[in-house]
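Handout for the seminar on molecular recognition.
Each group receives one record of this type.
Step one: identify the two inputs.
Step two: read the structure output and locate the region that could contact iron/sulfur cluster.
Step three: write two sentences on what you found, then compare them with the reference statements printed after the record.
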Amino acid sequence: MKEELLFVRHLHVEFQHGGQKEEAVRDVSFDVGCGEIVGVVGESGSGKSTVMCAVLDVLPQDADVSYEQLWIRGGKSSAAMVFQDPSAYLNPTIKVGRQLIETILLHPEPVTEKATQQQKKNSRKRAWEHAEKLLEMTGIRNPEEIMKRYPFELSGGQQQRIVLAIALACRPSLLIADEPTTALDVTVQRQILDRLKRIAEETHTSVLLVSHDLGVVAALAKRILVMKDGEIIETGTAEEIFHEAKEQYTRELVEAARKHGSRSQDKRRISETILFQAEHLSFQYTKFHFLKKKSTEAVQDVSFFLRKGESYGLVGESGSGKTTLARMMTGIIEPSAGQILYLKERWKSLQKGRSKAQCQKIQMVFQNCAQALDPKRTIGEALTEPLEIRGGGMQDVWKTEAAETLFKVGLESEILEKYPGELSGGQRQRIGIARALMLKPELLVLDEPVSALDVTVQEQILQLLERLQREQELTYFFISHDLNVVRRICDRIGVLYNGRLVESGDAEQLYREPWHPYTKELMLSTLTADPKKMRRRRNVPELTSRGGTGSGEENGCPYADRCGYVMECCKKERPELYRFEDREVACFLYSEQHSGKRSKEYRMASQI
Ligand code: SF4
């Protein structure tokens, strides 16, 4: 029989809002065994985080909490929490080493009185050594160096590892991880989850893993609780939940997560006309560091084209240059080199005189529409604003157009009078799409349009985008860090790494058989909502660093220090883009020198 570490019976939480009571958690009962990893899934607002905060007793004062039993073996101090946004948790003005050491000193090892006297003398030194060990445990390379840095000098993945190390410094027997990898790239996400699993196994720590992403839970949890509207509606082993769920809602969640990773069956007519062309685009940022000018190439020599009616997906991790490329396409920034052609005509940036008529043809949809909308303006005002800027026409006509566009994106015209704060995340994203459609564009640049949404809402938005594309013959440039989403909706995919296009080709072929080692790394890191498949997958190799070449030479392959296939030449020269029919790949494994002399009939296949 399992020994319980956390025991919760009949937990209720209510919040007071303007004299009114709102029930956030209703009659929740569950337990977590020693060393067990339990997943908690459910959409935003289902009460997952409220339950976790109630367990740790960190809910705000207006929360009314009641329960029959709620205890953690060893008390609440034996539990620690890892949050979604590590930057909000770390103090930006204190070096990470000090933040970690202070936590270690607050949670010393239980020792005898005699030993304590001895240890007190060199407790800081011991704490420093322990901090290094914890950072190594969470996968931080060179911990001594990292401890001397401020949080803002670290990447999102490094910050999350630091937060995990701080949580482990509390020597918890229960670790609550609330959406611990939601804001991270797929490669980093997979590594953090692998680390979490290893730590739980090695230290016999119990983990409560909260996520709206079923892939994350499938990768780790043995047992799963499904929450909806503040209640636990189903519990079971990972296999039961993913393959034999009893509740309709659970089946819908699993179905949406599976669909999310499967190819759309939507058949469209794609014209042979090339609508948009990017030719050798580059963009350089210039920064001043200690009065020295430093140039960074955010995008380097990127070329691609979009056929009319086609969906082109661009994948890559944060900082790979995806958004910079989108900003050049929409004319917001001027390329440092290269040119943009629209129906073979050269287009300038806004600054250099892109006309209003040209601007109308390419519109952008942002990741977080809540931030893109003015909270003080009604939806009607937000939708008619682009028409106002364009000028011409009557206000009454604009309103009718806004109502018609709302209908196209599946919303009722009553929403015109509402404010962004009154809408759900999915509705706001529909408004973002509607706003982009107001000027009747031909090309939509969609920058992570579904990343911030729950999986069921993601599916609805993707279906909406497919329908709009069919009805209005739109062309999509779809940016995402998630290969599953891009595969679902796109005809072709380009993979961007460190500002360079390292592979491009047919979406399905690229997904089934990646050619570039980085594309393969992305594929291995992609999570699927199937615990059996996830268990069969081996761990993703740890990254050694981000960007730059391992050799320290600027001219080598940018992926050399992460590549498992690296050769001597990779450190000295940069591979060109080798072309094979529709496929392009920038890797020496595809040069004649390395794959052998080829006859005309030779058909290249993946070399990895
Ligand atoms: S060129 Fe070399 S280092 Fe770069 S991806 Fe290919 S094998 Fe790896």
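Reference statements: The domain at 274-490 is CATH 3.40.50.300 (Rossmann fold). Residues 517, 557, 559-560, 563, 565-567, 570, 575, 587-589 surround iron/sulfur cluster (CB under 6 Å).
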